[in-house]
Specification:
This protein has about 625 residues and is of the alpha/beta class. Helices cover about 55% and strands about 15% of the residues. About 5% of the residues have low confidence.
């Protein structure tokens, strides 16, 4: 297993370094091993040669020293030892008798050191009896041979180093030559990754590297053509998307224009019809005619409901309903829902259960009430037995989930993903819901719920089991009771001099539709009001000249044929010399079918009541009393 440090070193080296290492290491190892083996062999050979030489000299010394040792001629033995010690490489000669006494000992002073000497001993035999009469010891020095060998080894190492250096240079150059095409390929791949689509590498040879270079050029060329084709497809898809987006925007603008027209221009005759149908019942006592009038009013209410859905959708899409978020007690909203639908549930033998709770949430109270009203109304419509439950529960993430359960027919799974779409209605036969007479929805109720939930920063969810019921839920952030909530300001109580009805009030009505003027004039007259009508600012000024005092209430349409109702109100303020900061000289009510925010945001709602067409007579009467009360309290 390779050592981890070796792997790290190998990964950090370049390709040239790796190739050089691969080429050099075997050569260096082989050369070092060869030099080592040859040196060892030569050293062994030198020692064998020295030992053979010493043995020969000792043998010669023993053969010539036999007679002299037998006769005990020490002088002759000394001469023999002296002559032998003068031989090359002989450093010392010792001749001993049979008793071991050294009778001759000569040393060659020119041969140094005992460390590099070989010692050989031979017995000296009597020539006649061939018995040992003594021994001769010869020391032979191999220092010169070893020095010569060392010099040879040194030279060999020098040549080895020089050869390795030359091998490194040759290996490095060869590795660079071999890696150059690969470096070019790596640079080309990097450029290709950076977006250079015209990169091409030269083909340097016909080996595998050449095949790799040609393959890269072919792949780069195909990639270039593929990118060009893809860019063309992207450009075409972008253009197509732009066309579809423009078509969608045009459709959205057309839809907004249609809704604006439906909520304004179509509401004009509907508003007039509402006024005239209400006026027909005044002073009418014939049962047959009253029954016909009731049917007319039922149809008008149905139209009012349908246009109300369109108006809500138009106001949501144009941003005319901004959310005013504050701390809201859920019990207060639940009580409103209970009051609105308790009688409806009882009329159809259903139970409406609203569970009280002490929870508070952050929401727009009006929007939250509208969400629950739509959900409960929808639940009651599609529930034939059982009832509807409204409740809330605290969740672990610090939010509150408001639920509306029903035991109705339920919603099939294929409809759940579209249930909040605009104009989507689940039609599953006559048993799908409870009959509502002439009032039928456009499929905008749940769409309005989802849009209102979006303005509150949440989403409405639905779960349903066909045949068992449906659960709609809205999750809102929880808040502590009363935190950041201002106490609602109570409406000023009317003083003893203020009438609780509108009998005898001077009312100026401004509208550019003669039918509406005729209808509201007839209706207000039946209520005992003194009515003057005008279609523009000039007629309004002519009308107020007939009164000695300012009118009690001015009811004006927002959009007039020339200018707006706000312009007429400002003109009347200047006529009655109202200065900045002064209370208005009369109560004012604006009635409009406009939903665009740029028209509505300029209205001072602190002094001006706003109603959206068509307005029911009951609602008109209520707002007139409220506007008069607020105006008189300010004065």
């Amino acid at each position: 297993m390779t050592a981890p440090w070796l792997e790290k070193v190998w990964r950090r080296t370049s390709l040239v370094q790796r190739l050089t290492c691969v080429a050099l290491v075997p050569t260096a190892i082989s050369a070092v091993l060869l030099v080592t083996l040859l040196t060892r062999h030569q050293m062994d050979t030198l020692h064998e040669m020295g030992r053979s030489t010493a043995d020969a000299i000792a043998q010669q010394a023993a053969s010539v020293s036999g007679d002299a040792l037998r006769t005990g001629e020490r002088r002759e033995l000394g001469r023999i030892a002296q002559s032998i010690v003068q031989l090359p490489q002989v450093s010392r000669v010792r001749i001993a008798n049979r008793d071991g006494e050294i009778v001759a000992d000569r040393v060659n002073g020119s041969v140094g050191g005992d460390d590099d000497s070989l010692t050989v001993a031979r017995e000296i035999l009597d020539p006649t009896t061939h018995r040992a009469v003594g021994s001769v010891t010869v020391d032979v020095s191999v220092e010169d041979a070893i020095a010569a060998q060392r010099a040879s080894v040194h030279n060999a190492l020098v040549w080895l180093a020089l050869s390795l250096l030359i091998a490194v240079m040759i290996g490095w150059s060869t590795a660079r030559w071999l890696s150059a095409p690969l470096r070019s390929l790596a640079i080309a791949v990097r450029q290709l990754g950076l977006g250079d689509r015209t990169v091409v590498v030269p083909v340097t040879d016909d080996t595998e590297i050449g095949d790799l270079q040609r393959g890269f050029n072919g792949a780069a060329s195909k990639l270039l053509h593929a990118q060009i084709g893809m860019e063309r497809e992207i450009v075409a898809a972008t253009e197509e998307l732009a066309r579809k987006n423009a078509a969608l925007e045009a459709a959205s603008v057309a839809k907004a224009r249609f809704l604006a027209a439906a909520s304004h221009d179509l509401r004009q005759p509907l508003y007039a019809l509402t006024l005239f149908s209400s006026g027909l019942a005044v002073d009418e006592y014939d049962p047959i005619r009253l029954n016909r009038i009731a049917h007319i009013q039922e149809c008008v209410e149905s139209l009012d409901h349908l246009f109300g859905e369109l108006l809500d959708l138009s106001r949501l899409e144009t941003g005319a309903m901004p959310a005013v978020v504050r701390d809201v007690p859920l019990d207060e909203v639940f009580e409103e829902v209970s009051v609105n639908f308790r009688m409806v549930a009882e009329q159809h033998d259903l139970r409406l259960v609203v569970r009280t709770t002490g929870l508070w949430v952050r929401a727009d109270r009006t929007m939250l009430a509208r969400i629950l009203n739509n959900l409960v109304s929808n639940a009651l419509r599609y529930t034939r037995c059982g009832g509807v439950l409204v409740g809330a529960r605290r969740r672990l993430d610090g939010s509150v989930r408001v639920d509306v359960w029903d035991t109705g027919l339920g919603i099939a799974s294929e409809h759940l993903q579209h249930i909040f779409d605009e104009f989507y209605r689940v039609e599953s036969g006559p048993e799908a819901g409870r009959p509502e007479g002439t009032r039928r929805g456009l499929g905008l109720g749940l769409s309005t719920v989802q849009k209102l939930a979006g303005l509150l920063g949440t989403r409405a969810s639905v779960r349903s089991k066909p045949g068992k019921g449906t659960l709609f839920s809205v999750t809102l952030p929880e808040t502590q009771p009363g935190v950041g909530t201002a106490e609602p300001v109570a409406a000023p109580a009317p003083s003893p001099g203020i009438p609780r009805d509108i009998v005898g009030m001077r009312v100026l009505v401004i509208d550019d539709e003669p039918t509406i003027l005729a209808g509201i004039s007839y209706l207000l007259g039946s209520w005992g009001c003194e009515v003057m009508t005008a279609e523009d600012a000039q007629q309004a000024m002519e009308a107020v000249h007939q009164w000695m005092q300012p009118p009690d209430i001015v009811i004006s349409d927002l959009r007039l044929r020339e200018g707006t109702g706000l312009d007429v109100l400002a003109l009347l303020d200047r006529y009655y010399r109202r200065r900045p900061g002064d209370p208005p000289p009369f109560a004012r009510v604006l009635i409009t079918g406009e939903t665009r925010g740029d028209f509505l945001r300029n209205i001072d709602q602190a002094t001006t009541q706003v109603l959206f067409k068509p307005v029911s007579p009951e609602r008109l009467h209520q707002v007139m009393v409220s506007a008069w009360t607020v105006h008189h309290a300010a004065v």
